[in-house]
């Protein structure tokens, strides 16, 4: 790479022209140049990561590459997070604490029905009882947290008082599971001079035509939060 820099200075031309003449890709040139300027070699980085992991194995072996990089920076060991990730993969040190078996439940399965407009727009306060209701499906784990050791809860809450009007618990988050508390809550509402709005996320249960038909039967508005705002309803 020093030769290329010398040629550039001698001929006073662009680096692109020199690289094209010697048939070296730009990416190879810049990667090699960056590598030559590294303060630490891979062995030093491996040793530093291993020392962090051994300080308190109960916790640090659950650290991901971002957390490891942050600790290294705090220790004055300046290294790029991508390099830390590469080395941790090569050493088999990547964090396994979060995967398909342990990640949080997400009822969103894509657009499988009709997406309703967001009528609340984060206006979750109201001075009228039963004007704004919210529903959401939550997953709870127990035992060894296996696929068979999970239960699901769906409450229907009134935003005026915080009262849980109805709820359901089941081992499976099916459409029927979600519809049961909705029907109970709407059937129990008194006559009101205004229409009720039920706000949810974009879970597949709430996109289903049966959920929407139930709301329509009770003359109730449907509202959905924006995608990727699953915490919004509650």
Rg estimate, integer Å: 28 Å
Number of strands: 6
The stretches of 5 or more residues where confidence is low (pLDDT under 50) are none
Q: So how many helices?
A: 10
The number of distinct structural domains comes to: 3
- Main sheet overview: 6 strands, mixed
**CATH topology assignment of the largest domain:** Nucleotidyltransferase, domain 5
What is the CATH C level class of the largest domain, in words?
Alpha Beta
Q: Any idea what the shape is?
A: elongated
- Proper CATH architecture of the largest domain: 2-Layer Sandwich
Protein name: Transposase
Function: Involved in the transposition of the insertion sequence.
Domain Integrase catalytic: 125-234
InterPro entries: HTH-like_dom, Integrase_cat-core, RNaseH-like_sf, RNaseH_sf, Transpos_IS3, Transposase_IS3/IS150/IS904
What does this 3D model show about the protein?
It holds the Pfam family rve. It comes from Lactiplantibacillus pentosus DSM 20314. The chain is α/β, with parallel strands linked by helices. It has 10 helices and 6 strands; from the N terminus they run H-H-H-H-H-H-H-E-E-E-E-H-E-H-H-E. It is elongated and about 85 Å long. The longest helix is centred in the first third of the chain and has 14 residues, at 42-55. The mean pLDDT is 84. A hairpin with a 5-residue loop joins strand 3 and strand 4 (164-170). The termini are far apart.
């Amino acid at each position: 790479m020093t030769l290329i820099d010398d040629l550039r200075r001698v001929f006073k031309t662009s680096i692109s022209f020199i690289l094209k003449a010697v048939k070296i890709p730009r990416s190879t040139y810049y990667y090699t140049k960056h590598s030559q300027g590294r303060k630490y070699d891979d062995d030093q980085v491996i040793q530093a990561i291993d020392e962090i992991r051994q300080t308190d194995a109960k916790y640090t072996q659950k650290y991901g590459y971002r957390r490891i990089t942050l600790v290294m920076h705090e220790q004055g060991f300046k290294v790029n997070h991508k390099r830390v990730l590469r080395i941790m993969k090569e050493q088999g040190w990547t964090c396994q604490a979060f995967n398909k078996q342990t990640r949080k439940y997400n009822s969103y399965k894509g657009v499988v029905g009709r997406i309703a407009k967001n009528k609340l727009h984060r206006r979750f306060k109201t001075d009228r009882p039963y004007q704004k209701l919210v529903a959401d499906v939550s997953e709870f784990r127990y035992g060894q947290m296996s696929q068979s050791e999970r239960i699901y809860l769906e409450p229907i809450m009134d935003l005026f008082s915080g009262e849980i009007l109805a709820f359901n618990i089941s081992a499976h988050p099916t459409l029927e599971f979600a519809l049961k508390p909705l029907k109970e809550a709407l059937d129990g509402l008194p006559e009101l001079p205004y229409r009720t709005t039920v706000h949810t996320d974009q879970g597949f249960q709430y996109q289903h035509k049966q959920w929407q038909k139930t709301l329509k039967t009770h003359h109730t508005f449907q509202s959905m939060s924006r995608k990727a705002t699953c915490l919004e309803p509650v």
